[in-house]
Amino acid sequence: GIRSFMDIWVYRSRYKDELDWAYIKAELDKVGLREFTENIYGLIEAWFGNGQSNELHREMTEYILSSGAYGTRKHAVTSSVSSMGIRAKKAKLPPKYAYLLKLFLPPVSVMQVHYPFLERVPNLLPVCWVLRGLKCLFFKRRHMMNMISQVHSVSGEDIAEMESLHKKAGIMRQ
After folding, report:
1. How far is CA 26 from the centre of its chain?
2. Among 11, 62, 84, 120, who pairs with 98 as Cys (CB 3.0-4.6 Å)?
3. Mean pLDDT by 10-residue block, N- to C-terminus, for the chain (174 residues)?
4. Centroid of chain to Cα 39
5. How many other CB atoms are found less than 10 A from the CB of residue 49?
6. Gap between the Cα atoms of 43 and 55, Å rounded
C-alpha cells in the first residue's frame, strides 16, 4: 500500500546524504533488485518530489492505490500465485495449484519453526504435514477455507497482469 512508499520517501529524504549509495547499488545489483529500486525511487519522486511520471509510474500508481494503505489480501495472493508461475511450469502444475501445494506442504525450513525436532529428524516432515493439516482442519477451518477461496478467485488474467507489472517494474526477469 501507499504507506510503505511514504515511509521510503521520508527515510530517503532524511538520510540521503548519509547513505553509502555506491554500496547500496552494488548490493542491489547482487540480488537483482537495482532496476526495481530505481523504478520505486522514480515513482516516489513523481509523487512527492519534482520527478516526471511515465507510463510505468501510472501503472504502478493504479496498482498501489487499489491496494489501500497496507495492501490487500487479494493482491498478496495474486502476487504469490504469480511468483509460483516459473516453478509451476517446471513441475507442470498450474500456478494456483503449485501455490496451494507450497501453502499446505511447506518445506522443512518453514516447518522447523513450529516443529523444531525436524532439525534432528527431517524424515518426519510428512508426519508434521499431517499434524499441521489436522490442526488447521479442527482449529483454523475458516481461515483455511478462506485461503483456498482466495487462491481460486485469482484468474489467469490477474496472474498475467501481475507478471507483466513485475517484469516492467524490474522484479521479475523478462
Report:
1. 23
2. 84
3. 87 94 95 94 92 92 78 78 67 80 91 95 96 92 89 86 86 68
4. 17
5. 12
6. 11
pTM, two decimals, is 0.64
In the DSSP assignment, the letter for residue 51 is: P
Helix (H, G, I), strand (E, B) or coil at 22: helix
CA distances from 122 to 32, 56, 111, 158 (A): 32, 45, 10, 37
What is the C-alpha separation between 158 and 161, in angstroms, rounded?
5
How many alpha carbons fall within 13 Å on the CB side of residue 69? 0
The amino acid at residue 91 is: A
In contact, 129 and 111? CB cutoff 8 Å: yes
Count other Cβ atoms within 10 Å, centred on residue 60: 21
Residue 148's Cα: distance from chain center in Å?
18
Distances (CA, A) of 147 to 64, 123, 136, 140: 22, 28, 12, 11
Which cell numbers hold the place of 2? 501507499
